[in-house]
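Entry type: protein chain
Record version: 2
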Amino acid sequence: MPHDYSRTDRIAEQIKRELAQLIRTHVKDPRVGMVAILDVKVTKDLSQAKVFFDMLDADSHSDCEKGLNNAAGFLRRELGRTIQLRATPALKFIYDDTELKANQLSHLIDQAVASDRKEDGDQD
């Protein structure tokens, strides 16, 4: 019976849960604020993991990304203690602004629909 949920996906989910906990409780860098871990992509050989995150204060995301990447070694070591793997993947934090862009696009669509309705009302 083939697995519907591959090993790399299971490891990525576990890394996601553990990182959220570790960042909240152990990272004391003032650049790192309220961070939400959105997704983790692990390479097939488990050597690297891209961690996509979002934060409340989108204006300071570059400082936060620098702070998280600065703490990546510490977080990797702590992950190694909690997750039983031969080698813990190297972590690379990447800011994901998909939600922000989606909200802006939704706002533009709402404006276009309202403009069309107004023009249709003027022609009647």
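Comment: The CA atoms of residues 23 and 35 lie 8 Å apart.
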